[in-house]
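re: the backbone from monday

yeah here it is again, tokenized this time
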């Protein structure tokens, strides 16, 4: 035997037992997105590297060390597997002039790639559902997106998620805050670790995000963004909060919440759970009013978020009873004439809307019946050469203690439908 080839570390197969949960999640999400008027967009997983460097920011974990970047051997172009969807979505909207006729509510689902250290809830290929509202300036869209998340948690039966909220102000406020932070950290340079020292002048706000226990006291005493906020951003933030309060969505103000991507301004938020260990953020986003212009479009305000599907599924599986999807009918047959008849009957039953698993094992009748039992199907339909000659089927309920019945197709359809 040849050596087995395994999947790439941190990139998981989603096997059928697990995939049925994904399908259930995706069905719910599709209806939910529709209820808020979001329209689906599908971008390629590969983009020019520049797109992510320019939007996410040069001095961020993602760009510095987590991107799958390679040179296209054919033309020497630097390409990157998308680490997130916002940059691609905005690129696509600009490229196809989607903002020409006004604002757009867009959504996408799919795999993202980050070369992080894999652990529970953190993968190198993971999936996001993302939402981007392009061309909207008011606090109503920020609040709507947050309220929208709260609705999804309710629909999925997920209780243990809390909302953290902050505002980053406009770019001038951020510049002021940056200066104050640099000043503050410079005065305590001896406490800074190597990462913080490296970021001190390029991206000091990221130091606030550090998990290093030795720096927590220093971080706790750092200046607060809220004190530098400009009046327009303050009013915007108050608008968001008023709408959340009116909608009864509780939140905690977290002035340390800065997010790991550079494109944000004003509102930022994260939904966090205590039930998943270290990887507790299930959904995150905020406003990014400068990004459209930054990647070559006409200026347009925007706001969005993305959720981690693997993390939410973990919560959803705890919250919902197991309800595997099974076929209506498992079709058992024995004999040459029966096989042909069974093949046609399976198609007929599908025409009537049933899901049918036709046994194709060529195994004994007994072993086929065992498979039917194990399949979880509601009924076995049994066809032997006798049935084939009489153009009939035997319908055997596999749950409860109903009698088996031999009848014509039309009657079998009624039986299976439960009439
Ligand atoms: P993000 O915070 O980088 O934001 O990712 C959003 C969510 O994706 C996280 O909260 C987490 O649930 C999930 N996630 C991230 N990395 C991993 C991983 N390695 N394994 C499993 N799940 C992960 C963004 O990506 C922004 N594009 C969100 C956004 C959209 N902001 C505005 N619009």
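seq for it, each position gets an aa:
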């Amino acid at each position: 035997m040849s050596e087995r080839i395994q999947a790439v570390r941190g990139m998981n197969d989603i096997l059928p037992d697990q995939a049925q949960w994904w399908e259930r999640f995706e069905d719910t999400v599709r209806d939910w997105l529709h209820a808020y008027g979001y329209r689906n967009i599908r971008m390629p997983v590969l983009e020019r590297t520049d797109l992510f460097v320019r939007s996410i920011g040069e001095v961020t974990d993602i760009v510095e060390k987590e991107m799958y970047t390679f040179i296209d051997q054919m033309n020497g172009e630097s390409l990157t597997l998308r680490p997130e969807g916002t940059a691609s979505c905005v690129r696509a909207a600009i490229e196809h002039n989607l903002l020409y006729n006004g604002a757009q509510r867009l959504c996408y689902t799919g795999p993202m790639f980050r070369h992080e250290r894999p652990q529970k809830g953190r993968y190198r290929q993971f999936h996001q559902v993302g939402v981007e509202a392009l061309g909207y300036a008011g606090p109503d869209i920020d609040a709507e997106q947050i309220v929208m998340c709260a609705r999804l948690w309710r629909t999925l039966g997920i209780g243990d998620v809390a909302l953290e909220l902050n505002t980053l102000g406009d770019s001038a406020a951020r510049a002021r805050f940056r200066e104050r932070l640099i000043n503050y950290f410079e005065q305590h340079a001896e406490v800074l670790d190597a990462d913080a020292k490296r970021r001190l002048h390029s991206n000091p706000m990221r130091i606030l995000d550090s998990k290093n226990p030795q720096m927590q006291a220093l971080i706790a005493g750092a200046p607060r963004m809220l004190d530098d906020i400009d009046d327009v951003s303050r009013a915007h933030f108050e608008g968001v909060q008023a709408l959340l309060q009116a909608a009864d969505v509780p939140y905690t103000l977290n002035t340390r919440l800065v997010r790991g991507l550079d494109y944000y301004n004003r509102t930022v938020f994260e939904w966090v759970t205590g039930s998943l260990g270290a990887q507790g953020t299930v959904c995150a986003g905020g406003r990014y009013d400068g990004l459209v212009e930054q990647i070559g479009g006409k200026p347009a305000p925007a706001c969005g978020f993305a959720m981690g599907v693997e993390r939410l599924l973990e919560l959803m599986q705890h919250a919902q009873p197991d309800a595997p999807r099974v076929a209506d009918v498992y079709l058992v047959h024995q004999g040459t004439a029966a096989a042909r008849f069974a093949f046609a009957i399976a198609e007929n039953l599908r025409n009537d809307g049933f899901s049918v698993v036709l046994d194709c094992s060529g195994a004994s009748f007994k072993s086929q019946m065992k498979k039917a039992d194990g399949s979880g199907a509601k009924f076995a339909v049994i066809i032997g050469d006798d049935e084939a000659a009489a153009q009939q089927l035997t319908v055997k309920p596999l749950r409860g203690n109903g009698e088996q019945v031999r009848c014509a197709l039309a009657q079998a359809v009624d039986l299976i439908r439960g009439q």
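The chain has a mean pLDDT of 94. The longest helix spans residues 16-35.
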